[in-house]
Amino acid sequence: MATFLKNKTISVIFLSLASMVALGWTLKQDDETNYIKLDKAALKKDSIASVMAFKNVYKVLMSPRCVNCHPKGDVPLQGDDSHLHVMAPKRGLDGKGVYAMKCTNCHQPKNTPGQHTPPGNPDWHLPPADMKMVFEGRTAHELAKQLVDPAQNGNKNIKKLKEHADDALVLAGWNPGEGRTLPPMSHAEFKKEWLTWLNNGAYAPAK
Amino acid sequence: MITLNVNNKTYQVDVSPDMPLLWVVRDTLGLTGTKFGCGVAQCGACVLHLDGEAVRSCVTKVSRAEGKKIITIEGLSANNDHPAQLAWEEIDVPQCGYCHSGQIMSAAVLLRENPKPTDKDIDDAMSGNICRCGTYPRVRKAIHLAAEMQEKDKK
């Protein structure tokens, strides 16, 4: 009998301890510090969708209509074969040319009529010398990383990058003047892919 | 009617707003110093100054020039004595001469923005002005001389 009581006491103590541990564990589950928060922003990130969208974005950015004004050198490119611009106009500090060779000396506010005549835009220019924003020769991985880096993209945050899809010079790529091919998709399709890339985390494709 | 300020004079011209500025300057105002070369901004023969910039007037619509200051080769100086004009004469730069109004107008912008241009600066500034006679070495020499003349004038 004594042994039975002793065993029962031990069982009660054991069960009590087990209950306390279980209760403590349960309480700990509700503890904020141990709670796995679901970040809404993180939920929106989708690296696969982002990278897939950037593949299409990259096709546009590497088309002559975009890359010609994002050269690796200080002379813009020209034509569907992206040759160096005839007359070799130079970038200049502000990207608007130098001396008698400023962009808007030839590039008018609107396209000049005729095959291969100067395309127009009121703000025709290259990126400035202190932030060249080179597209030419960049891999998809390199360009994606560059585009989201404010130190390399013209100090743009994600909001400004989204707005940039409707920039007048970006839109000019789809109104290039006579004798020039268009980018490989419509502006609406490009904008959709651009926003999909950014909204899903702006992931860079693998190297 | 379009109002233009050309060589510090005001003109009223009855032309289409889309007419090239070169046509207005030459055919309407009779200022024939500015030349027609290629008509598509490739040669530089038609360069004049629009608010001080060396604009190609063959592709510039006259509407762009409204309210701006237009200077042609005839108005570059009071007595054909801009340093570039004097240097051009001194070096005897032209051969046929057709492109040299444009050459001088481009050189004038360079000399204003860079009073002591190097050979590279000259190439960067003048690479859009084509000379069929190949007077480029004399153009370069004349710009260096014009820079010296301009410097002396300041002293």
UniProtKB/TrEMBL annotation, chain A:
Name of the molecule in the record: Cytochrome c domain-containing protein
Record's keyword terms, sorted: Signal
Keyword Signal: yes
Signal peptide, first to last residue: 1-24
Protein origin, superkingdom: Bacteria
Keyword Signal: yes
TrEMBL record, chain B:
Keywords tagged on the record: 2Fe-2S, Iron, Iron-sulfur, Metal-binding, Oxidoreductase
GO MF, one example: oxidoreductase activity
Taxonomic superkingdom: Bacteria
Domain 2Fe-2S ferredoxin-type: 1-76
Gene3D superfamilies: 3.10.20.30, [2Fe-2S]-binding domain
PROSITE patterns membership: 2FE2S_FER_1, 2FE2S_FER_2
Record's protein name: (2Fe-2S)-binding protein
Organism: Flavobacterium psychrolimnae
Lineage, broadest ranks: Bacteria, Pseudomonadati, Bacteroidota, Flavobacteriia, Flavobacteriales
